[in-house]
Automatic annotation (TrEMBL):
Gene Ontology cellular-component annotations: plasma membrane
BP GO terms, sorted: cellular response to osmotic stress
Organism encoding this protein: Pseudomonas syringae pv. solidagae
Top-rank taxon, per record: Bacteria
PANTHER family: MINICONDUCTANCE MECHANOSENSITIVE CHANNEL YBDG (PTHR30414:SF0)
The name this protein goes by in its record: MscS mechanosensitive ion channel
One term of GO molecular function: mechanosensitive monoatomic ion channel activity
Length: 72
């Protein structure tokens, strides 16, 4: 497409424990994102518009600030 080439990762795990599956999935994507530049590739995600509207209202930033303040 004009936005790039879609990539689908299709694999299996031996575990059915959800937390372990999520960790494995995260490890796979962390690795792929890390090695992409080695192949001259860039990660790209086109904004949908809905996420931009929320960000423009500042709700995400304000919530992040509130969460950060609570942690201190």
């Amino acid at each position: 497409t004009s936005q790039g080439i879609p990539l689908e990762i299709y694999c299996f795990t031996r575990t059915t424990v959800w937390v372990d599956y999520e960790r494995i999935q995260g490890d796979i994507f962390d690795y792929l994102i890390t090695v992409m530049p080695e192949f001259g590739l860039n990660l790209y995600q086109q904004p949908s518009g809905a996420d931009m509207r929320v960000g423009l209202r500042g709700e995400v930033v304000n919530q992040a600030k509130a969460d950060w303040t609570k942690e201190r």
